[in-house]
Specification:
The complex is a heterodimer of chains A (310) and B (398).
Chain A (H helix, E strand, L loop, with lengths): L4 H5 L16 H10 L7 E6 L3 H6 L10 E4 L5 H17 L7 E8 H6 L2 H9 L5 E6 L39 H6 L5 E6 L5 H11 L5 E6 L3 H5 L5 H10 L6 E4 L2 E4 L10 H4 L14 H23 L1
Parallel strand pairs in A: 1-2, 1-3, 3-4, 4-6, 5-6
Antiparallel strand pairs in A: 5-7, 7-8
Helix pairs in contact in A: 2-8, 4-6
Chain B lengths: L2 E6 L1 H12 L3 E4 L7 H11 L6 E4 L3 H14 L4 E4 L1 H16 L5 E6 L13 H5 L6 E4 L3 H15 L8 E6 L8 E6 L1 H8 L16 E2 L8 H30 L6 E4 L6 E5 L3 H14 L4 E6 L1 E3 L3 H8 L4 E6 L10 H12 L5 E6 L9 H17 L6 E3 L9
Parallel strand pairs in B: 2-3, 4-5, 5-7, 6-7, 11-12, 11-14, 14-15, 15-16
Antiparallel strand pairs in B: 1-8, 6-13, 10-12
Helix pairs in contact in B: 1-2, 1-6, 1-7, 3-4, 6-8, 9-12, 10-11
Classes of the chains: A alpha/beta (310), B alpha/beta (398).
């Protein structure tokens, strides 16, 4: 059965309105659309790392999640969920529960790439039967846009402020999807909001219904941190893909698969110029920085093509 | 009720209690001297003696986090740790307590690093005293076993719903093999029963959300509710002890008083050194010295009134601390005991002695010296230095 946009978007919401996330926030769009990957009627437990998504969706005494939900701390969404899955296994074995459940964790890039990588890696290595979804907005947004290891090169953040001696963040992003794929889990993928959410939907459904650990890295822009107008988010995501900044790929049982190859790859400026965090790059004296950026994007794209050609 | 005399280490005794309890989920990470507990337990798993989900996590932060997830999901969960492991868990200890999850932690007390040291003191568990956990301390292997058997009945009581730490002294109790008595498997199984959560993540009939963001209009009530549960725990610990006496014949309270009826000089202590102190008391009593001991079994909740009442009538008291708090006024047991004595108008001359830190030996004669010091203090009518050290290499420094 093909992907039917209208049908998928009209599924009952499992992330209810009334939460306090910003308009134009990628994390919210990510959560809603990942949950659309769950089949109607199937039960799930949702976990979340501390961050915008948690504090805005579960402020006592209100909760936006229609499914059972657990938050414990910043760095331990995966280990907390390991315990939930462990309980599920034990209680099933002992006949205490009969129903089937799916387990999905959300975390921002801070809670996933940085402080949460230990518990994430541990849960992946142990073969925990859950799906981890990173809503990657490329900085510690909940605390006010501090750089993370997911922050793109040259981004102006509150801990890499552009100044006379600083061009923004010095380093390129950590390639987390590749790191997780190296755990040799059954399913790892990178996606974003692109062309009617088909790529995201199919990957979410596949991840959730994979037996064993699955990982999704979702480029999820943040209007306050990236500095764009809220209605520009879909276009920014499109440009992230069309410039090869955020390639769409999946790693299935160790096999790397490229899901989309731009017909006319756009230069990286097209992506960078949509966000005020990169505006210093467009000063005439900084032309070489954009050149360097393009080289890095190209190098990483070639590397991805190589992995996908094996 | 069939009972069995055995020779066992404290770790094996606690692991045996866990086998008999057959918990649902045990996330584990090794650290000396608690490592043996998950090690023994993994043998039970490998040989089908339990049907527990045993999760070999990658850190103590994760073992406690997984225990939290498991307990919130509706399972009976526990883990074990020591020292740096407990310190690494510190953040999530508070989460377990505020989520009101009856998780158990087998804490095998060991010095915190700085310098690295694997031996016994109480700096790890005392560092966690304000995390919202119930803390029961054992004097010996038997008590470690008994406390473990009672743990879930206390923690899971609907008036309590708090996590519980079952503490024993590293190596001294955890590794030394002692004579003790085991209850039979069926008796323990029936005594502990199965965990039935009221609200849990895997309840097919209702969804459940745990771990909210609570700002200043709700946070304080949540803290007060925890404090109220801790107050309730006092009676529940006693009630469970009464039930336990029926199956074991052994009596437990919040404190244990040893030779306190007519005691003029008393020591207040926690853990294995209580046994050493009892030997000192027996020797001195033979010479007519009116010496006694108050052993604290429950440090959280803190039985301040009970301790102060027991000490009323004493001429001089030494409160013993196996961990520094660097307040320059003494250690945690000293501070809390003296505060309780003040509130209860117990005016015995009182000193606070740091001892046994980082595994420094505590001998019977050391404890006899403590009583001699108390006799001197009473005779002079002055405490002198309240905050003291015992057993330092440099004798001048005491």
């Amino acid at each position: 059965m093909g992907y039917n946009f209208k049908e998928i978007m009209n599924k009952p919401e499992r992330f209810a309105p009334g939460h306090r996330m910003c308009a134009g926030c990628g994390a919210t769009i990510c959560a809603r659309n990942v949950l659309r990957g769950l089949h109607e009627g199937d039960k799930a437990v949702i976990g979340c790392a501390t961050g915008c998504l948690n504090v805005s969706s579960f402020q006592y005494p209100y909760v936006a999640w229609e499914d059972s939900y657990i938050h414990s701390a910043f760095e331990n969404a995966s280990s907390t969920m390991s315990g939930v899955v462990g309980a599920y296994n034990a209680m099933k074995r002992k006949g205490k529960i009969k129903e089937d459940y799916k387990f999905i964790c959300f975390g921002g890039d801070g809670g996933t790439y940085d402080i949460g990588i230990q518990s994430l890696s541990g849960a992946m290595e142990r073969g925990t039967n859950y799906t981890y979804v990173c809503y990657d907005n490329g900085a510690y947004m909940n605390t006010g846009t501090q750089r993370s290891s997911a922050t793109p090169m040259y981004a102006d953040t509150t801990t890499t402020p552009v100044g006379s001696q600083c061009d923004g963040k010095e380093q390129y992003r950590k390639d987390l999807a590749a790191i997780i794929a190296a755990h040799d889990i059954p399913y790892a993928a990178q996606t974003t909001f692109f062309k009617g959410f088909k790529d995201l939907h199919e990957k979410a459904e596949r991840a959730i219904y994979t037996d064993g650990p699955a990982f999704l890295n979702v480029c999820a822009p943040c209007p306050t941190g990236w500095k764009y107008k809220t209605d520009e988010i879909m276009e920014i995501c499109r440009l992230a893909v069309e410039t090869n900044y955020w390639p769409l790929y999946e790693v299935v049982e160790g096999k790397w698969i490229l899901n989309y190859e731009p017909k006319n790859r756009l230069p990286i400026e097209e992506f960078l110029k949509t966000q005020a965090r990169f505006k210093h790059l467009f000063k005439p004296e900084n032309e070489h920085l954009i050149e360097k950026y393009q080289q890095e994007v190209d190098r990483r794209w070639e590397d991805l093509l190589f992995k996908c050609s094996r | 009720m069939p009972k069995k005399r055995v020779l066992m280490s404290g770790n094996e005794a606690v692991a045996t209690a866990l086998r008999q309890i057959n918990p649902d989920v045990f996330p584990a990470f090794p650290i000396t001297p608690s490592t043996e507990i998950p090690q023994y337990f993994s043998n039970y798993v490998s040989n089908g003696l339990v049907d527990t989900e045993f999760i070999t996590v990658e850190s103590e932060h994760s073992s406690m986090s997984a225990a939290i997830g498991a307990s919130a999901a509706g399972a009976r969960a526990l883990t074990a740790t020591s020292s740096a492991g407990l310190a690494f868990m510190w953040e999530v200890l508070g989460v377990a307590a505020s989520h009101r999850l009856p998780v158990a932690l087998c804490a095998v007390c060991r010095a915190l690093t700085g310098p690295l040291n694997i031996n016994c003191d109480h700096s790890d568990t005392m560092g966690a005293k304000d995390s919202g956990w119930i803390q029961l301390y054992a004097e010996n292997n038997q008590e470690a076993y008994d406390n473990m058997v009672m743990a879930f009945n206390i923690a899971e009581n609907k008036d309590v719903m708090l996590p519980i730490m079952i503490c024993q002294d590293g190596f001294i109790t955890s590794h030394a093999v002692n004579n003790m008595e085991l209850l039979d498997d069926l008796t323990v199984k029936e005594f502990v029963g199965e965990y039935e959560a009221d609200h849990y993540l895997l309840n097919p009939d209702e969804t459940f959300a745990v771990g909210p963001y609570a700002v200043s209009d709700y946070y304080m009530e949540s803290r007060k509710a925890q404090a109220h549960a801790m107050e309730n725990a006092k009676q529940v610990i006693l009630d469970v002890a009464k039930d336990f006496e029926k199956i074991s014949g052994r009596k437990y309270g919040l404190i244990e008083e040893y030779q306190m009826e007519d005691a003029e000089y008393a020591v207040v202590i926690i853990g294995s050194a209580a046994g050493t102190t009892k030997d000192a008391i027996d020797k001195m009593r033979a010479n007519g010295d009116k010496v006694g001991l108050v052993k604290i079994r429950s440090f959280r909740p803190f039985p301040g009134k009970e301790i102060a009442t027991a000490l009323k009538g004493c001429k001089a008291v030494a409160v013993m601390d196996r961990s520094e708090s660097f307040s320059t006024n003494g250690g945690p047991v000293g501070a809390e005991t003296m505060q309780a004595m003040y509130s209860e108008k117990c005016d015995a001359l009182t000193i606070n002695i740091m001892y046994g830190i980082g595994g420094r030996d505590v001998r019977v004669e050391d404890m006899m010296n403590v009583y001699e010091t108390l006799k001197d203090i009473a005779a002079k009518g002055e405490t002198g230095d309240v905050y003291r050290y015992m057993g330092l290499r440099d004798k001048e420094a005491k």
